[in-house]
TrEMBL record:
The keyword Transmembrane helix applies. Residues 23-141 form the VanZ-like domain. This is VanZ family protein. It comes from Streptomyces mesophilus. Residues 159-182 are annotated as: Disordered. PANTHER family: INTEGRAL MEMBRANE PROTEIN, MEMBRANE PROTEIN-RELATED. It comes from the Bacteria. Keywords: Membrane, Transmembrane, Transmembrane helix. The chain crosses the membrane at residues 12-34, 68-85, 97-116, 128-146. Coiled coil: none annotated.
């Protein structure tokens, strides 16, 4: 386990809290999106990007803000909970962002695919797009600042650096090949 300056028990508590909150949020999202609905009729699946967003905007600004906001906020906590469950303070900002957004997109895609088997639920490509944007915005808004604050509080360097003795160990030794025994 990589401690990176925090005490061992602090890292375990931080990751455990992240995992617990992540599981709770995913359970809530699963319950919300994968439960059967009793509806008299179901609309066709929306597989054309931005068609649902355009339809929402046609309903008026209040209704559009509510529907688009719900889709943005549904998986947005994953933008913070996934890096928290990882517990890495000295992670590359771009790498962390890409991993988190890719995981959010895959979870959203999984939900949309599972909805094909649930009565009353409809697949919507715009939900996938908005869920992924919500994860990205939440990550960009909170994670870099939170990591910097924790690193400052723990007295860690602001950037990922190698100690001098690890950086200059010299070339890797080579081992001569040994022939096959008779």
């Amino acid at each position: 386990m990589q401690r990176q300056g925090l005490g061992g028990s602090a890292v375990i508590r931080f990751r455990a809290t992240g995992v617990l909150l992540l599981v709770a949020h995913l359970a809530f999202v699963g319950w919300l999106t994968l439960r059967p609905l009793d509806v008299p009729w179901v609309t066709a699946a929306n597989l054309q990007p931005f068609a649902g967003i355009k339809a929402d905007l046609a309903l008026g600004p209040a209704q559009a803000a509510r529907r688009i906001g719900e889709a943005l906020l549904l998986l947005a906590p994953l933008g913070v909970l996934l890096p928290m469950a990882g517990g890495r303070l000295q992670a590359s900002s771009l790498g962390s962002f890409l991993r988190t957004v890719a995981a959010g997109a895959m979870l959203s895609l999984g939900i949309e695919l599972l909805q094909t088997a649930v009565p009353g639920q409809v697949v919507d490509i715009d939900s996938l797009l908005l869920n992924t944007v919500g994860v990205a915005v939440a990550h960009l808004a909170l994670v870099p600042a939170a990591r910097a604050r924790i690193r400052r509080r723990q007295g860690l360097p602001g950037r990922l650096t190698l100690p001098r003795d690890e950086a200059s160990q010299g070339p890797t030794p080579t081992i001569p090949r040994v022939g096959i025994a008779p």
